[in-house]
Specification:
By secondary structure, the chain is mainly alpha-helical. The protein folds into two domains: about 30 residues; about 180 residues, Four Helix Bundle (Hemerythrin (Met), subunit A), CATH 1.20.120. The protein is about 90% helix and about 0% strand. Helix 2 packs antiparallel against helix 7 and helix 4 runs antiparallel to helix 7. The chain is elongated and about 80 Å long.
Length: about 210
């Protein structure tokens, strides 16, 4: 209970800031629907960039297990750099999805409330139907995006483990030990890319619906 009392003012403050932001944007002709479109498109770009980054990490891992002499410390640093870049990319994807949720909830709440302002029953019914369809499509999209988000976690865990193992065992035996991990990481990354492609395709359909 004490935790709830402490966090409640913060949540109210964040909500108030968001409301103020939406109000300010509407005054210059940018509505919640427009913001939602922008954020979905930004999430698409973030997912595409994440795909490329994870592919790059896989290529580095492939080079690592083929290592046959040279600067092993430099190889470790490159591997660690790829992992850190993947972690940052995953964080950005999560941030983009969270921003979509925030504005979508505000848009749907506003739309639902404004249904009561109709005096024409036919128009009200049509708008309510469009709201239900849009919300259903959005719910499906969010589920797909979250699935793609979650599919990054096992890859990140594997990349981190491999990077740490290499750091703690900078020798040829370490390379040999990691060779057996490659196929598993490759499989997880392929699944990740497939999930993201599905999310990107659904995003395009959702944006098209919002722009109608």
């Amino acid at each position: 209970m004490r935790y709830v009392l402490l966090i409640l003012p913060l949540l109210l403050s964040v909500t108030a800031c968001q409301s103020a932001y939406y109000s300010a944007m509407e005054k210059v002709g940018v509505h919640k629907r427009d913001i939602l479109v922008d954020r979905v498109e930004e999430a698409q770009q973030s997912q595409q960039q994440a795909q490329q980054q994870f592919k790059s990490a896989l290529e580095q891992f492939s080079s690592l297990i083929k290592f046959d002499g040279g600067d092993l410390q430099r190889m470790y640093e490159t591997t660690d750099s790829e992992y850190q870049a993947c972690s940052a990319a995953a964080e950005d994807v999560s941030k983009r999805i969270n921003s979509i949720e925030t504005v979508a909830e505000a848009l749907f709440d506003e739309w639902q409330d404004e249904l009561e302002q109709y005096s024409n029953a036919k128009l009200k019914q049509d708008s309510a139907r469009k709201l239900a369809n849009t919300r259903k499509q959005y719910t499906s999209l969010l589920k797909t995006m979250r699935r793609a988000e979650q599919s990054m976690q096992p890859v990140l865990a594997s990349l981190k483990d491999n990077t740490l193992y290499l750091k703690h065992n900078l020798n040829a035996k370490a390379i040999g030990a990691l060779q057996g991990e490659f196929n598993s990481v490759q499989k997880d990354i392929n699944r990740l890319i497939a999930d993201m492609n599905s999310a990107i395709a659904q995003s395009e359909q959702f944006v098209a619906t919002l722009k109608q």
